[in-house]
Design brief:
Length: 364
């Protein structure tokens, strides 16, 4: 239906902004032409690992504490399979990135959800503490969060550290959106927090920040012991990410203007908020990332059916958003929400504004 309606995709996080840096593309072409087309050392191109180390908030040994992966997806896979056994429990925040649940269960783990509460998507400290027990092995975080846009505060991370220390749990944090922070906000990485730093596994990616999602390049940062365990899993799966693409990013990643990209992404967030709150949706402004988590209840008269709404919006306007219910442990709790990606060119956002102007769901 989306193709038939010449739909505008505002659902997936595939970058429409920023643009891929020309220097990175040229470096990839050069790497291929000059013969860098064979296997590389499984943990990754050393020059790329050295570059990644310079971008992290804490000193990191690129030889023993960094591993290049096939996107953040493989990074998460390696971390969970190295750190949990069947039946072990993993604490995670709800709502969250829907792939987390699948990755945990695929590794044999059991999710233990800590609810986040609208409108600002924060957890209750007592509910966080009660989620831990003797079977807890891992805490899985995402900051800035998908789909909420929340950036975990130092106070929240300190609370997580208290429970992680008490129950000797490793803390994995997907920080792939850390390059996009808004309103002058900074981010505290788990690698910086006492109580978390020594038990932390940081997941990163170049997909969104450098607009190379098709290259599938991510990374893991952890202490040498955990890194060794995760690399053993990698040797039995992909055995390494694409060599010429790693070489290209290692040579040219610094050419991407990440500060400007973050500022420009903030402008896109503001415009997307204007468009969709103008329709009648209720949205807490995201603190980082590239998604809006929009409550359609005010627009639909309280009818909680995100899927029906997305289909009606697509049919009437050709604009594609996605139901957010799969991001919630209990889909009924997320039935009144949709997720909207705003990492798009301004000209496309203006077209979205034109198309949705005056749209009202049936019955309104």
């Amino acid at each position: 239906m989306a193709r038939e309606r010449r739909g505008i995709d505002m659902a997936l996080g595939t970058p429409g902004y920023p643009e891929t840096a020309v220097d990175i593309i040229e470096a990839a072409n050069d790497a291929i032409r000059t013969g860098k087309n064979q296997y590389v050392f499984p943990p990754g191109d050393l020059r790329l690992r050295e570059h990644i180390a310079t971008t992290l908030p804490v000193p990191t040994d690129p030889e023993t504490e960094l591993t290049v992966t096939v996107g953040a997806t493989e990074a998460l896979f390696l971390a969970l399979h190295a750190l949990i056994d069947p039946g072990d429990e993993v604490v995670l925040l709800d709502p969250g990135y829907e792939q987390f649940k699948s990755a945990i269960t695929f590794a044999g783990g059991v999710p233990r959800y800590v609810p986040l509460y609208a409108p600002d998507w924060r957890f209750d400290p007592a509910e966080l503490a009660s989620a831990f027990n003797s079977r807890t092995r891992v805490v899985l975080l995402n900051s800035p969060g998908n789909p909420t846009g929340r950036v975990l505060t130092r106070q929240e991370l300190d609370l997580i550290a208290e429970s992680a220390e008490r129950w000797d749990a490793t803390v994995i944090c997907d920080e792939v959106y850390s390059g996009f922070l808004f309103d002058g906000r900074g981010q505290t990485s788990i690698a910086e927090v006492p109580g978390l730093a020594e038990r932390s596994v940081l997941v990163g990616s170049f997909s969104k920040s450098h607009a190379i999602s098709g290259w599938r390049l991510g990374f893991l940062r952890a202490d040498a012991t955990r890194t060794t365990a995760m690399r053993r899993v990698q040797e039995l799966t992909t055995n390494g990410a694409p060599g010429p693409l790693q070489a290209a990013v290692g040579l040219a990643a610094g050419s991407a203007d990440l500060r400007t990209a973050s500022e420009e992404m903030g402008r896109r967030r503001d415009f997307a908020l204007e468009i969709f709150t103008g329709m009648g949706m209720k949205i807490s402004p995201p603190e980082g990332g590239c998604f809006l988590l929009a409550d359609i209840g005010p627009l639909t008269g309280g009818r909680a059916d995100g899927r029906a709404f997305t289909l009606e919006l697509l049919d009437a306007t050709g604009v594609v958003v996605v139901p957010a219910a799969p991001s919630f442990a209990d889909p009924d709790r997320g039935a009144q929400y949709v997720r909207i990606a705003f990492n798009r060119p301004f000209e496309l956002l203006h077209e979205v504004e034109r198309r949705v102007r005056g749209f009202r769901p049936s019955g309104q």
